[in-house]
Amino acid sequence: MKIAVCVSHVPDTATKVKIGEDGKSIDPNGVTYVINPYDEYAVEEALKTKEKIGDDSEVIIITLGSDISKESIRKALAMGADKGVLLKEDNQRDSFGIAKALAEEIKSQGCELVFCGKQSVDYDNSIIGQLIAELLGYSCVTVVVELTIDVNKLTAEREIEGGKEIVESELPAVITTQKGLNEPRYASLKGIMTAKKKTIEEKPAVDSINLTEVLRMHLPPSKQTGRILGTDKSAVPELVKLLREEAKVL
Amino acid sequence: MNMFEGADYFDVESLLSEEEVLIRNSVREFVSKEIIPVIETHYRNGTFPIELVPKMAELGLLGITFPEKYSCANLNYVSYGLINQELERGDSGIRSFVSVQSSLVMYPIFVFGSDEQKNKWLPLLGKGEKIGCFGLTEPDYGSNPGGMLTKAEKVDGGFHLNGAKMWITNGTIADVAVVWAKLGGAVRGFLVEKEFKGFSAPEMKGKHSLRASVTSELIFDNVFIPEENLLPKTEGLKNALMCLNQARYSIAWGVVGSMMTCYDTALSYAKTRIQFSKPIAAYQLTQDKLVYMISEITKAQLLNLQLGRLKDKGNAKHYQVSLAKRNNCEKALEMAHISREILGANGITDEYPVMRHAANLESVKTYEGTHEMHTLIIGENITGISAFE
């Protein structure tokens, strides 16, 4: 079986982002990029699935982005994936535009099982997996924390508000992965050296329209400095009044 | 997760290959997730986190420079340096474990061992299924190992070994010890296995340094060593010193990891600690300390990288290794002290890693050739006059 993992190259969550000159994209200068943390669970689950169902299956990493995205593909290959595909695109795409190109590639590779992180930590749209499934006519199980795959059937446990849900589905399917599904392995030194010999196929991403457009980005307002209303109980009435009228939390 | 970004003021990373960066990052992540969360407790309890050994082996950290046929990664010396640097950011004791296993146990077996010895031991040591130690130093012979009293005597089918070694990292937990002893006047290497009768390795207690590392005595009371456990290609003390050179190389890199974490801790503390209504980073005295730290880190990084490139070409000289070990250990200890100063009283607690590093580095500056001995090795090389022989 061919297993696809869609991997996104995103700014490290610890990076302080700045908005670029155009006012609608991130300034890449000084930003450290990493593999999207939720995609690491996707890679790990794909590798575990391959280990379980046998060696004739293949794990293919598919990424849409510019040349620098190859770093994340390389990391996934070092973890043990078999090959990588970089769908080259230097311009910003919306989720639909990204999903469209990924879906085309998944179709042409003939992958029956697709893993995606439940969301990318850059734009947080949490929608790529669902779009791919829709575009390909695959079933889709999101926010998965436990997964069992038998021949053509899968059983998944997914997180829902206040509880868990057990879902059964047939293949082909798209699974979006949540923290807790597994513990991603480290790229071993041997894995890193072996990854050198694995190929990353590069090709232009298929054209697609964007259905949404970013008009403007802005940073959250900086925290205002606190106010000290007093240091004894005489300040309480004023505090209650402000909590009610200004902060509107009471 | 909040990835440690290191300290790289001169973009030294751009001098590394893509694989070298990936290797460093993988070990960096391992240290953040597996070592740092547990190390303070182990340090306080005086225990070595032995549960990390299989994980380090799986990552491929043991004997990384040796060929694939021994289940090793066959990587270059710059990569070996980088993994030591990252591990010592966690703790000098963990880095010591890896240095000893790789440079002082696997290396002599690889270089001086028979094919049978190599085929038997290297895969086991590389996979972390067996642990090794290195016995050279004796209670009365530290800087002057040539005076050693441990003796091997030829007997039927092998040798009888008598004597004692001291300050041996991994001794008590080791399955095999590479022991140096005089056989008819020449220093030779022997593989002494844990279960050999008359061999014991009691742990040395009471350390204020390297508390998360096992340090032991090795005692040989008429231990019978079979013929096949003599390292056949050892000829004299110089072979033991070749091993030390390997380990010194790993130390020169390792301590830069300590420097980076001490600097990183001091810098973020200085930016957030407010005194007299300003962060202490705003004061000239603090800036002077921080600038000194980043300058010394940068110099040490460049020194290591060039040493590594020379070593990968087979051109690194022992006195160059001495210079890097001597300089970097001295500066790392100084960095830990300065970092502690910037942190004020907070610096002495285990909320921060700097006091642990400072205590560890007292050992690191001393073992594998004291600071003073490295001075005299370099002194001898540049003047042509030995000050100690």
Would you mind describing this structure in some detail?
The complex is a heterodimer of chains A (250) and B (389). Chain A has a single domain (2-204), classed as 3-Layer(aba) Sandwich (Rossmann fold), CATH 3.40.50.620. In chain A, 27% of the residues lie in helices and 27% in strands. Chain A has helices spanning 37-53, 70-79, 95-109, 128-136, 189-195, 236-245, and strands at 2-6, 9-11, 33-35, 58-65, 83-88, 113-117, 139-150, 153-160, 163-170, 173-177, 200-204. Chain B is an alpha+beta fold. Chain B has three domains: 12-126, Acyl-CoA dehydrogenase/oxidase, N-terminal domain (Butyryl-Coa Dehydrogenase, subunit A, domain 1); 132-235, Butyryl-CoA Dehydrogenase, subunit A, domain 2 (Beta Barrel); 238-383, Butyryl-CoA Dehydrogenase, subunit A, domain 3, CATH 1.20.140.10. Chain B has helices at 18-45, 52-59, 77-90, 92-112, 115-126, 237-272, 284-312, 318-342, 354-366, 371-383, and strands at residues 132-135, 151-155, 158-169, 176-183, 186-193, 199-200, 215-226, 274-275, 278-279. In chain B, strands 1, 2, 3, 4, 5, 6 and 7 form a seven-stranded mixed sheet that branches. In chain B, strands 8-9 form a two-stranded antiparallel sheet. In chain B, strand 8 and strand 9 (278-279) form a beta hairpin. In chain B, helix 3 runs antiparallel to helix 4, helix 6 (237-272) packs antiparallel against helix 7 (284-312) and helix 8 (318-342) crosses helix 10. The radius of gyration of chain B is 21 Å and the shape is globular. Chains A and B meet through helix 2 and helix 5 of A and helix 1 of B.
Q: Quaternary status of these chains? A: heterodimer
Q: CATH H level of chain A: which superfamily?
A: HUPs
Please estimate the helix content of chain A.
25-40%
| Major sheet description of chain A | 9 strands, mixed
* Whole-number total of structural domains of chain A: 1
Measured as a percent range, the helix fraction of chain B is 40-55%
- Which CATH-level-2 architecture of chain A? 3-Layer(aba) Sandwich
Gyration radius from CA atoms of chain B, angstroms:
21 Å
